[in-house]
């Protein structure tokens, strides 16, 4: 019977037709009118219904004409668009396939091709394609690696022989007429090292076998079984290749991992006679180092490539051009280029082909859409690196693409199930043991892994679930069969034994040598060539722990050897271990074959000994022999299913007693090995991204017989997994299996809802299922259960007002949180309550406004407690919606949400910046915290919480020290005996000075000032100035701290002496101290009267005269008149507190009109005002009026009695003493009348001073001309000081303004100090130089220049 010809695949059939088209002769073209080619518009492309193929570059015309390429693609309804010279094209947005040879394909180019599904590289390598960018966009990349496999391999040997036999040199010598080149060497016996054992590397190895090389070693992370089968051996490190090879051929791809792999360290391992051949990519070798070492003769090389793309010329000045190394630029002939383009077309054709007749077209397939990020990407599939996984993955891929309609891309191939676990988790490097790259992952692009042997990796699976609970994969369960490892034998043996003697070899008991001779149906150990088996010392027979356990378990110590402390399995015939059943007669044994280092060797030994089976255990020398020996020898063999390796034998499993887990846990393997569930694992987010895909995979149930059927099909046809899977899916019987897996497109699951693909909207029923599918509910909707005649499904319902859904794929809408609302349906987020509103319940459609006068600190407030009085007001109610907001009183800061409770506690829920507080300089009590008092000194009232005083003060508002203490200016200090002594001495000294004043201030009145008069005037003027400054200091403005000390010192002359321990002398009671101050003026007069009458008891020369005594008494009250008037007006000088009460300016603890001593003070003050101020002033006015008459009547006693009033002034200005006397009370009067109005005080005082300045300027009253000028100067300084007070009426926050005010007042105080210094100089000059006034040597400065002495005197001026 003739062999059945293998059917061609769809792609191969298309390729064959295309090859015929290219090979067929072309008929002569008939002349036609010129026709300009046009690119179809978008609408035309859609009407044509064909795919657009974008060509980045053209083949050379002599290799393959452009027209031929177009015809090839057009015949398959593929429209070609060629790039312009600048590698752009006019219409590209519709391209689904991009074809390139060597032009770079990067992310920027991919961004211009939104419909692209495939990049087809008509070339072997694809290092010029941005694979990561393609992966992210779901674009497949394919090349044609086999189009020049033979050519590249043969070129390698051409370069090798050129170097070994010196062919280029010999050619040059012969042409030059020479015959003396070095002798050549043979290739035979050389050691070959091949880097990269793919198609080209494998072909190089096959050719080298023909030349009888001594050894072939290879280096490649991916092991090629065919390389091992032809005698190649893999090494573990690249350095081993360079150390132990005579000839090294580089055949690997250029990747980030291989770029620069052959570096200086590797090249230094080469010998001068070593040969390095590179037919791969130049960038794999460090070009600079290689060039230098070649020029130095460190090794020899044959180079087909250098660093750069193929087609680029080596620079003219490159050092390699002058070397004797053979250089060949690979330029495939026209035929090879044609094949490359044909194979490239095959890729495109396969990409566009479908398996199932009713398949969803590629252009209608969709990506997954991440509802959280909005990112779109294909469904990613991880493939196990074994045959059954390849086939099952193709079955899944075809159904997912053609029936469910998703774009699918391969994310990698893993040769261990656990690699797939990490890939599904989203790990960047799932195959890298030790660093899988899982940290920080939040999205996975791998979603499906069929044929996951989960049970064999349960610890790793569990560890992933713990380490990455949000990303770890989900096991959808068994996919229809279990995997297992066991003992197998060919089914023909079973049939033969059964037919011959009815012996059942399916069960282990059929092999018991005591009952049966099963060995006769198998080959004995002698039938096996020892060269095909591993020596015993290379197997698990050398593992002491395993062998010792075997002996202890079975008691078969004869089956082991004890060497010292080591226990080894006994070796027979160098390669076998014989069980007791046939140990004495090896011919009675049959063979069990395993691979590796003796997989399951100890389990086999336990079973054969325990069940008396005459089976010899042996290990195949390598994997290739293991796969071949059971096919040529009849034996048992170790195997696992599903796997195609021994399917042609129709293997039968030997059944042992059922699996005993407890026994296996301790190493007892005499029972059947357990099976492992073969599962389907998916990413954790697949049920959100594509619930119908997960439903399909959950329904997957394929019998192992069907998997074996497909694997046998692949063995028989030699086709790839796709063709085999496609044929199985097309089979009618198979369709009965897999069609049951397909999900109902209208049966949605939680987190999804019905979506109409025609109207592109969510719908609420499924009466017409034509365009329905399930789609994850978008943001603003939730998945709601819906029941109809077809059963349960889910619909995506708009979120009602008061709720939102931001993430999509949700089972319910999230109610708006506290402080939020939503007044519309279908919203993705809730709105925050605006400022002034709150919401203290979830799921509300509107917010609640705060009560009148209150607001919130910001938006989104969750509680009525967040409503607080606006800044500048304070809550006197119960807070929240019971708030009563009053204006913040003066002297208190009221930030947002201030309340009386917060004021008392000093805390606020919003933080320390929101605590209401008493301002520095103000005070309130705890029981009436909002009744604010104003203090006269910031030090005394530091502010903060109510009842806070500074320096130990007490009494409202921080105005008194406790009994026995006195105010020092910064704190209350304890009274001491020295304080009392000081005041006793001071009082005695003061009264003593009054007595002395009688003798100093009673000189004769003259027209011109005497020395003593000048001194007295200077002293009096200084005192008057200081009193005036003290009065100005009493103005109710905020003087800066550096001036308050000066002004306080001047106020001593106004008897403001509380800072000098006066309370230690006069008592702590303010009214009592005031009474003492008032009594001082009367006591002083009484003291002088007492002195007058007491002097009568003395001799006549010491007795006081009546008129002089009266003048002294007047002088006392005149000097203290400003003080006396200020003291008398103190009970009338009331300033107003923010709470409406009034306190005395000097005694803030005394409430005006109160019962705390103010009445007594009023009585004392009025008595002093009536008697001392008005009485004395009236007397002085009368005396000034009568003075001319008294002087004319020569009434010397009266004139002498009022000497104090006129002695300082010129005779024509005798009256000036009265206005000067009135100046002090007038300056105090504005402070009394406008205590709460500093601006009024400033204006009135300046008016008063201005009037006095004018009067003084016109009258020139003082006898000493210099004193007139000094008085006006001092008056002007006072005016400036008062004017400067306006700068402190409302203190500016501007630093520049504050600096100016401080500098101005400091300058004025400096002027006043200068005036005082001049007064002091005048007084001292008059005392030291008594002729300074009135003599021939008088100081001209006193008179402001020299006077004309002509006899015309002051009296003449007055008379005429």
How would you describe the overall organization of this protein?
This protein has 1360 residues and is of the alpha/beta class. It is 38% helix and 14% strand. The longest helix has 35 residues, at 1158-1192. Residues 1-49, 308-312, 329-339 and 1346-1360 have low confidence and may be disordered. Residues 157-325 form the D-isomer specific 2-hydroxyacid dehydrogenase NAD-binding domain.
Report the oligomer. Answer: single chain
Question: How would you state the average pLDDT, rounded?
Answer: 81
N-end to C-end Cα span = 174 Å
The radius of gyration is 59 Å
Beta percentage is 5-15%
Low-confidence segments: 1-49, 308-312, 329-339, 1346-1360
| Class computed from helices, strands and strand pairing | alpha/beta
* Separate helix tally: 42
Shape call:
elongated
Largest sheet: 7 strands, mixed
Helix content: 25-40%
Number of strands: 47
Give a topology summary.
Blueprint: H1 10-23, H2 42-48, E1 51-55, H3 66-74, E2 78-82, E3 95-100, H4 107-111, E4 118-121, H5 131-137, E5 140-143, H6 149-164, H7 167-175, E6 191-195, H8 199-210, E7 215-219, H9 225-229, E8 233-234, H10 238-243, E9 247-250, H11 264-267, E10 275-278, H12 287-295, E11 300-303, H13 334-352, E12 368-369, E13 376-377, E14 379-384, H14 387-404, E15 408-414, H15 417-425, E16 448-452, H16 458-467, E17 474-490, H17 491-501, H18 544-554, E18 560-563, E19 566-569, E20 590-594, H19 601-610, E21 615-619, H20 623-632, E22 636-641, E23 651-653, H21 661-665, E24 676-682, H22 686-689, H23 691-699, H24 704-717, H25 721-730, H26 732-738, E25 752-756, E26 761-762, E27 772-776, E28 781-788, E29 791-798, E30 803-804, E31 814-815, E32 820-821, E33 831-832, E34 837-838, E35 848-849, E36 854-856, E37 867-869, E38 873-875, E39 885-887, E40 892-893, H27 900-905, E41 917-918, E42 922-923, E43 933-934, E44 965-967, E45 972-974, H28 977-1000, H29 1011-1033, H30 1041-1050, H31 1062-1066, H32 1070-1094, H33 1106-1119, H34 1121-1129, E46 1134-1136, ...
Parallel strand pairs: 1-2, 1-3, 3-4, 4-5, 6-7, 6-9, 7-8, 9-10, 10-11, 14-15, 20-21, 20-22
Antiparallel strand pairs: 12-13, 16-24, 17-22, 17-23, 17-24, 18-19, 25-26, 25-27, 28-29, 30-31, 32-33, 34-35, 36-37, 38-39, 40-41, 42-43, 44-45, 46-47
Helix pairs in contact: 1-13, 6-8, 14-24, 14-25, 18-19, 24-25, 29-30, 29-40, 29-41, 32-33, 32-35, 33-34, 34-35, 34-38, 35-38, 38-39, 39-40, 40-41
């Amino acid at each position: 019977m003739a062999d059945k010809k293998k059917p061609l695949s769809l792609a191969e059939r298309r390729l064959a037709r295309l090859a015929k088209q290219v090979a067929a002769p072309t008929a002569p073209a008939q002349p036609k009118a010129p026709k300009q080619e046009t690119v179809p518009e978008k609408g035309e492309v859609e009407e044509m219904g064909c795919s657009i193929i974008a060509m980045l570059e053209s083949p050379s015309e002599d290799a393959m004409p452009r027209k031929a390429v177009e015809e090839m693609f057009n015949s398959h309804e593929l429209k070609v668009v060629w790039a312009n010279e600048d590698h752009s094209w006019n219409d590209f947005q519709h391209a689904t396939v991009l074809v390139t040879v060597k032009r770079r394909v990067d992310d920027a180019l991919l961004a211009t091709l939104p419909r692209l599904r495939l990049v087809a590289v008509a070339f072997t390598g694809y290092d010029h394609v941005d694979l990561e960018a393609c992966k992210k966009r779901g674009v497949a990349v394919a090349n044609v690696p086999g189009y020049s496999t033979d050519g590249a391999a043969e070129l390698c040997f051409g370069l090798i022989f050129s170097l070994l036999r010196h062919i280029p040199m010999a050619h040059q010598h012969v042409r030059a007429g020479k015959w003396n080149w070095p002798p050549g060497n043979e290739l035979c016996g050389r050691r070959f090292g091949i880097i990269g054992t793919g198609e080209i590397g494998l072909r190089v190895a096959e050719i080298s076998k023909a030349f009888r090389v001594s050894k072939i070693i290879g280096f490649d992370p991916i092991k090629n079984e065919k390389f091992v089968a032809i005698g190649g051996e893999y090494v573990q490190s690249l350095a081993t290749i360079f150390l132990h090879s005579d000839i090294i051929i580089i055949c690997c791809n250029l990747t980030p991992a291989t770029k620069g792999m052959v570096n200086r360290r590797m090249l230094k391992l080469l010998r001068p006679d070593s040969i390095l051949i590179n037919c791969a990519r130049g960038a794999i070798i460090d070009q600079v180092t290689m060039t230098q070492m070649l020029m130095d003769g460190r090794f020899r090389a044959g180079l087909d490539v250098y660093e750069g793309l193929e087609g680029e010329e080596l620079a003219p000045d490159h050092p390699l051009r002058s070397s004797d190394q053979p250089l060949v630029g690979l330029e495939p002939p026209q035929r090879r280029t044609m094949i490359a383009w044909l194979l490239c077309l095959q890729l495109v054709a396969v990409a566009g082909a479908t398996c199932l007749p009713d398949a969803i077209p590629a252009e209608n397939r969709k990506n997954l859409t991440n509802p959280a990020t909005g990112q779109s990407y294909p469904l990613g599939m991880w493939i196990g690196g074994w045959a059954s996984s390849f086939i099952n993955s193709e079955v899944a891929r075809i159904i997912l693409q053609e029936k469910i309609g998703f774009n699918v891309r391969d994310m990698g191939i893993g040769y261990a199930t656990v690699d797939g676990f990490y890939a599904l988790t989203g790990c960047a490097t799932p195959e890298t043991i030790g660093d899988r790259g899982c940290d920080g992952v939040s999205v996975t692009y791998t979603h499906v892994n069929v044929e996951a042997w989960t049970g064999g990796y349960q610890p790793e699976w569990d560890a992933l679930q713990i380490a990455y609970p949000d990303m770890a994969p989900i096991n959808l369960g068994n996919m229809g069969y279990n995997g297992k490892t066991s003992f197998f034998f060919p089914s023909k043996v079973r049939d033969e034994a059964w037919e011959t003697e009815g012996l059942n070899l399916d069960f282990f008991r059929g092999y018991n040598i005591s009952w049966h001779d099963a060995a006769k149906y198998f080959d004995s150990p002698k039938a096996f060539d020892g060269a095909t088996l591993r020596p015993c010392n290379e197997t698990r027979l050398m593992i002491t722990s395993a062998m010792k356990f075997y002996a202890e378990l079975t008691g078969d110590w004869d089956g082991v050897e004890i060497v010292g402390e080591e226990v080894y399995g006994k070796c027979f015939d160098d390669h076998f271990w014989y069980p007791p059943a046939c140990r004495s007669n090896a011919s009675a044994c049959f063979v069990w074959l395993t691979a590796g280092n003796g997989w399951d060797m100890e389990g086999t030994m336990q079973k054969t000994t325990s069940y008396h089976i005459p089976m010899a255990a042996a290990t195949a020398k390598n994997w290739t022999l293991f796969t071949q020996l059971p096919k040529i020898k009849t034996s048992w063999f170790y195997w696992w299913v599903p796997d195609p390796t021994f399917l042609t034998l129709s293997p039968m499993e030997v059944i042992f007693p059922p699996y005993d887990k407890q026994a296996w846990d301790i190493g007892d393997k005499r029972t059947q090995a357990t099976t492992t569930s073969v599962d389907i694992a998916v990413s954790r987010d697949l049920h959100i991204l594509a619930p119908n895909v997960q439903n399909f995979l959950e329904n997957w149930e394929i019998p192992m017989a069907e998997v074996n059927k497909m694997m046998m099909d692949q063995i028989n046809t030699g086709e790839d997994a796709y063709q085999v899977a496609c044929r199985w899916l097309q089979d009618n019987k198979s369709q009965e299996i897999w069609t049951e897996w397909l999900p109902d497109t209208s049966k949605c699951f939680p987190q999804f809802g019905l979506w109409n693909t025609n109207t592109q909207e969510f719908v609420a029923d499924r009466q017409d299922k034509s365009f329905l599918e399930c789609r994850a509910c978008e943001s603003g909707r939730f998945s709601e259960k819906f029941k109809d005649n077809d059963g349960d499904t889910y619909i995506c319902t708009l979120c009602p007002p008061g709720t939102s859904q931001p993430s999509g794929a949700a089972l319910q809408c999230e109610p708006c949180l506290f402080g939020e609302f939503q007044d519309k349906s279908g919203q993705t987020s809730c709105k925050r309550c605006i400022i002034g509103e709150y919401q203290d319940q979830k799921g509300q459609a509107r917010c609640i406004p705060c009560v009148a006068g209150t607001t919130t600190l910001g938006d989104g407030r969750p509680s009525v407690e967040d409503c607080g009085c606006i800044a500048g007001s304070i809550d006197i109610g119960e807070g929240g919606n019971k708030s009563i907001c009053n204006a913040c009183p003066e002297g208190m800061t009221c930030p947002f949400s201030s309340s009386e409770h917060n004021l008392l506690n000093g805390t606020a829920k919003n933080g320390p910046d929101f605590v209401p507080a008493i301002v520095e300089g103000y005070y309130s009590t705890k029981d009436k915290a909002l009744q604010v008092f104003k203090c006269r000194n910031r030090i005394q009232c530091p502010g903060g919480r109510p009842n806070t005083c500074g320096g130990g003060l007490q009494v409202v508002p921080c105005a008194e020290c406790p009994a026995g203490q006195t105010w020092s200016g910064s704190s209350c200090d304890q009274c001491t005996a020295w304080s009392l002594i000081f005041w006793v001495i001071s009082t005695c000294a003061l009264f003593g000075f009054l007595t002395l004043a009688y003798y100093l201030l009673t000189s004769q009145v003259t027209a011109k000032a005497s020395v003593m008069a000048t001194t007295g005037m200077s002293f009096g003027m200084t005192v008057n100035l200081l009193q005036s400054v003290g009065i100005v200091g009493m103005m109710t403005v905020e003087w800066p701290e550096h001036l308050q000390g000066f002004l306080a010192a001047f106020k001593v002359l106004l008897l403001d002496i509380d800072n000098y321990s006066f309370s230690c002398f006069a008592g702590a009671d303010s009214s009592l101290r005031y009474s003492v101050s008032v009594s001082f003026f009367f006591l002083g007069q009484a003291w002088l009267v007492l002195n007058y009458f007491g002097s009568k008891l003395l001799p006549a020369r010491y007795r006081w005269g009546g008129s002089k005594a009266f003048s002294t008494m007047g002088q006392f009250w005149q000097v203290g008149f400003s003080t006396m008037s200020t003291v008398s007006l103190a009970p009338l000088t009331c300033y107003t507190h923010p709470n409406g009460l009034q306190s005395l300016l000097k005694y803030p603890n005394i409430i005006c009109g109160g019962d705390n001593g103010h009445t007594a003070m009023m009585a004392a003050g009025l008595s002093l005002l009536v008697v001392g101020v008005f009485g004395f002033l009236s007397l002085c006015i009368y005396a000034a009026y009568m003075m001319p008459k008294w002087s004319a009547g020569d009434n010397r006693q009266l004139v002498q009695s009022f000497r104090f009033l006129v002695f300082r002034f010129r005779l024509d200005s005798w009256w000036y003493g009265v206005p000067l006397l009135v100046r002090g009370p007038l300056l105090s009067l504005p402070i009394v009348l406008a205590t709460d109005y500093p601006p009024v005080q400033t204006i009135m005082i300046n008016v008063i001073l201005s009037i006095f300045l004018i009067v003084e300027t016109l009258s020139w009253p003082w006898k000493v001309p210099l004193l007139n000028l000094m008085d006006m100067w001092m008056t002007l300084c006072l005016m400036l000081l008062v004017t400067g007070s306006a700068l402190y009426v409302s203190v500016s926050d501007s630093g520049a303004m504050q600096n100016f005010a401080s500098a101005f007042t400091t300058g004025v105080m400096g002027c006043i100090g200068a005036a005082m210094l001049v007064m002091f100089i005048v007084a001292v000059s008059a005392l030291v130089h008594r002729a300074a006034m009135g003599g021939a040597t008088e100081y001209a400065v006193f008179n402001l220049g020299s006077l004309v002495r002509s006899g015309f005197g002051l009296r003449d001026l007055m008379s005429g």
